[in-house]
Write a structure and sequence with these properties.
The chain is of the alpha/beta class. Helices cover 56% and strands 9% of the residues. It is built from 13 helices and seven strands. This is D-beta-hydroxybutyrate dehydrogenase, mitochondrial. Belongs to the short-chain dehydrogenases/reductases (SDR) family.
Length: 327
């Protein structure tokens, strides 16, 4: 009976993986087709000071879209905002945007409405890209850190989406949310980040169901490791974060875990500096397809093969098996 049960479980897992590949990749690829023209279509992107956001703003502008690039540091003379403003194009509009501020979000959306060629036709797409990342074991991570990470990554995504949805609905457009492979699987040292990205995944699913009646497509982008491409994690960042974690940790936690254990995990994070993919193109291509395709995917996974395989195993295998394999 036991061998039969094991074989049945293996068969179910294999079939589940097959459906994931066939329906998640094969079917959309057959149905997929891009819009013939982007003329007059506008896209609002958050987090354009650096990384994916800044690169995406340039890329979509080059394709002919009108871009509204939200930058946190525009009013402070940030280099990313300055670089985009130097385009001096009526299709590149840089707006001050802190996604944690209701006032700034509403002001930015008002600015978008004023500058749209025809606000009655709405806004074609919003890309919720703004995000922050950090690390630390649960007992070393303060409640303030948990709140700060989710305030940007999750509540910021929801705040911006709600503000622009009336415009997106008029256009029967697109909502594209940047999550992460860590929105589908957890990892040590990354609980505050994972929580926020799991939330983005859930929000996107619920929104997709509701927006179907309006003809609005909702897609999630789940990037893998792009540390080398974005420079989001440096040795200086690791050092400053580690110092803060140790300094703010309760004395009982420091005593129980010990400095050797703490330093070992910090060294693990340091080893990730300059790792991963060196080119943001796979992420830009995924977002662009979500915006332009007539039948966009529900989820895009621009990831290195070993991370994609790990994500499939951790989301399809029983937890006891995936825990044994990876932890």
């Amino acid at each position: 009976m036991a061998p039969h049960s094991a074989f049945r479980s293996l068969l179910l897992v294999s079939f589940s993986v097959f459906l994931t590949v066939a329906l998640g990749v094969g079917l959309p690829a057959i149905l997929n087709a891009s819009m013939r023209t982007v003329q007059g279509k506008a896209v609002f992107i958050t987090g354009c000071d650096s990384g994916f956001g800044r690169a995406l703003a340039k890329h979509l502008h080059e394709l002919g879209f009108t871009v509204f690039a939200g930058c946190l540091l525009k009013d402070d003379g940030g280099e990313g905002a300055k670089e985009l403003e130097e385009f001096r194009s009526d299709r590149m509009n840089v707006v001050q945007l802190d996604v944690c501020s209701d006032e700034q979000v509403n002001r930015a959306v008002d600015d978008v409405k004023r500058k749209l060629a025809d606000s009655e036709k709405g806004l074609w797409a919003v890309v919720n890209n703004a995000g922050v990342s950090t690390f630390g074991e649960v007992e070393f991570t303060s409640m303030d850190t948990y709140k700060q990470v989710s305030e940007v990554n999750l509540w910021g995504t929801i705040r911006v989406t709600k503000a622009v949805l009336p415009l997106i609905r008029r256009a029967k457009g697109r909502v594209v949310n940047l999550a992460s492979m860590y929105g589908r699987m957890g990892n040590i040292m990354r609980s505050s980040y994972c929580i926020s990205k799991y939330g983005v995944e859930a929000f996107s699913d619920c929104l997709r169901y509701e927006m179907k009646a309006w003809g609005v497509k909702v897609s999630v982008i789940e990037p893998g490791n792009f540390i080398a491409a974005t420079g989001i994690l440096t040795r200086d960042v690791v050092a400053s974060t580690a110092n803060k974690l140790w300094k703010e940790a309760p004395s009982q936690v420091k005593e129980d875990y010990g400095k050797a254990h703490f330093d070992q995990h910090v060294a693990l994070m340091r080893s990730y500096c300059n790792s991963g993919q060196k080119d943001v193109a796979p992420v830009l291509d995924a977002i662009t397809d979500a915006i332009r395709s007539k039948h966009p995917y529900t989820r895009y996974t621009p990831q290195e093969p070993h991370w994609w395989i790990r994500m499939q195993l951790m989301t399809h295998l029983p937890g006891a098996v995936s825990d044994f394999l990876y932890f």
